Amino acid sequence: MSQLSLFDQDVFGNTEAILNDNPHPLIVAARWGFKLSYVDQDGDKDHYLYAGIEWFRGLGGDRSRWTRVKSKLLLSTQQLPFTAADGKTYQIDFVTQDDLYRIAMDMRQTAKRPQLKEIVAYLAKAGVLFDQFRRKPQKAIRTFEEIEDRKALCAAEKHSHAAHAPNYGMLTNQTYQVLFGAAKSELCKHLGLNYTQSRNFRDQLSELARRAIQMSEAGAAAQMSAESGLSDMQQADIVRWYAAKLAPIAVEMAQQAGIDLLSGKRMIEA
Fold first, then answer.
1. What is the DSSP-derived secondary structure letter of residue 63?
2. Per residue in 154-196, pLDDT tens?
3. Which of 45, 61, 140, 154 could connect to 132 by a Cys-Cys bridge, CB 3.0–4.6 Å?
4. 200 and 151 fall within a common domain
5. What is the pLDDT of residues 29-41, one digit of tens each?
6. Same domain, 170 and 220
7. Spatial contact of 25 and 96, defined as CB atoms under 8 Å apart
8. Which residues of 46-73 are buried (b: 16+ CB within 10 A; e: fewer)?
9. Which domain holds residue 182?
């Protein structure tokens, strides 16, 4: 894991290469001329962590209000080493790009922050999903489809629940437990996922595993959309039934293909 700065590159002399292949936080920093340090965790630009306070200050925020902003927005920060201009190393807060966007949208536009209005307008037009589409179009399309499927599932779960207040997390973990034998937290440990990867858990799974989840949830959504007055247990039973139907098929297909169902890695022949 290495700490980099956008301004290690020739930002003002030649930004074209930077703008073509970098996430939007770095494009914003280049265009509006402020420093934004980041940590490359695993070589995937979608997983970069950014120095939150540098982003906040670059948008016109006061350093003294950073702690209050973290608390207000419930940011999931990670304390990581940071080398300052004086050569000393400090522990500062790093956050995901999604948290950077939340900070920008929450800040009040004032005369003292002339760049904020332009930055917010730029981010609003681009969007987080477009950022992925620009660099990884196939992944972005798949992500959009999965988001729509999740919306349909959540709507069906809410509609069918007796109090219209389903336990979404429990139901999702029921799917994981039946398909893969463990809840999300244990699966993340098994795969050795870092913080950012865990927050984008399904992105780390094999295509076969994602399809199994998608089909299982689609079946559960179709049934629950036609029912009402269900208890937590009844909803869990529906979710488990569809997952149980898909699990042996997914396992058999992974074995036939010679891959690990969860990670998609090639299995080592005995």
1. G
2. 999 999 999 999 999 999 999 999 999 999 999 999 999 887 7
3. 140
4. yes
5. 999 999 999 998 8
6. yes
7. no
8. bbbbbbbbbbbbbbbbeeeebeebbeee
9. 136-257
